[in-house]
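User: Can you predict the 3D structure for this chain?
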Amino acid sequence: GTGDAVLLLEADTTNTDEDDNARIEYSQDGGGVTASHGVDGNNRFFISTTTGTGTSIFDIGGGVETNLYYGTSKKFATTSEGIQVTDTGAGSQAVLELGTTSTTEQGFLKLNGSTANKYSNIQTTNGNLHIDSAGTTSHKIYLNWYTSDGNSSTGGTIFGNGNGSQVGAIDGSGNLTITG
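Assistant: Here is the predicted structure, written as structure tokens:
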């Protein structure tokens, strides 16, 4: 072998101006579609695309975090704390999708507790939702039981039949009501 082949694109060689950054820019359709990749003023590697519908940016900070932006809104981040999915658009909701369309694999969300090997899983099997506690002998599952205002009459849990109809409820005081 002849060794590595390296293409070096260097800016701010004296480390005195964070506005001097190494990047490659692309343009097409009369400048209506642009893209670039390189290093920004915060020393983060980025890939950016702009079209008539907006700008998407993917940036990576070595050992810090990785972000995905649409415009200036952060939509997804991986940090030392884990994965964050956000959406700040008016009337929109953040969605975290796990799993595949495979019939043999299932997606699940594992929520680790504050004690080692104590966790809960949320998953689906054939469209049925499972909420399971594991790693503990108590196996308790709490569904919207407590209220932030401390008023037991405003809290509780409602159970539905999948058609939007209520079939039962437990109010904030623990009273069970079965409907139908």
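The two ends are 77 Å apart (CA to CA). Residues 133 and 141 are 7 Å apart (CA to CA).
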